Automatic annotation (TrEMBL):
Classification via Pfam families: DnaJ
Name of the protein this chain belongs to: DnaJ domain-containing protein
Keywords: DNA replication
Coiled coil residues, start to end: none
Domain J: 167-206
Lineage summary: Bacteria, Bacillati, Bacillota, Clostridia, Peptostreptococcales
Single Gene Ontology BP annotation: DNA replication
Amino acid sequence: MFCKIRKGKWGYSIYACDRKRVNGKVVSNDIKVDSYAWHSLYEYKEEINGLIDDIPVALMSSITAKCIGNKDVNLDFNDVVEKLIKVKKEYYPTYKAMMSKIKNDIKKEEENKLLEYENFKNKYSSLHYKELMEKYQEGYDRGLLDGIKVEDKFFNRSSDKKLEMNDSEKKLLKKLYKRMAMQYHPDRNTNNKESAEMMVLINKLKEQWGI
């Protein structure tokens, strides 16, 4: 018997073939051993090392087991290997193209992951910076209000007393009032006793400042 390999686009089939002449006619007897995907002909990382002029051990083990399991098959394995190497060389351009695509896909995926990480890091840094600034502003406003409380208590100012100031100072105080009112407004601080007390003080200061 001799080996014959029928090659397709995505795989190949191995046949054990016999030819006999019976009554003057050639009688063919082709026994299919098995079918395999084309990439079964290649070793791991063979695209890096170059085409290896050999057949993977796992593939030969599978073919040997199939042949041993069929008593009607009797193949010369040197013939099988020789023909498999020929088919392997024919599939090699397809193999190289596939490995190139895999490399590019992996590279692209790594680049996308890096880009996602950079975007996340930038976004997180911005949010972190914003949060720090809000905390700083909150502490600044709280400290300013506490200072005004002390000053108000020290000078014993009444709620109906107006401070004397020029237009520029009033403009600055209006900005300060709006900022503090927004920070401690009840709508933004539901059921917060301290914010409610702060809001009372802020409104009291507004009246004293005459703004």
